[in-house]
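Batch job 17 of 40 flagged for manual review because the log was empty.
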Amino acid sequence: MVMAGVDLTTVKELLGHKTLTMTLRYAHLAPSHKVNAVGVLDNKLTGNYHSFITVDGKEVTPTCITH
């Protein structure tokens, strides 16, 4: 659900977890989802759109960034 854009608090409530810690324990994000998040953050902070970012020495294309 998180990778589909549902926030952690909503996921916590839907799954009946008492704490966010429990939700985070099971919220395993795919590496590509993390790359996209970094790209969005970079775009917001710098105002620059990058067609790729470098992760572990490799160029990776974020898929959710818009121009």
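Reviewer: the log was empty due to a logging misconfiguration, but the result itself is present. The chain has three helices and two strands. Unflagging and moving on to job 18.
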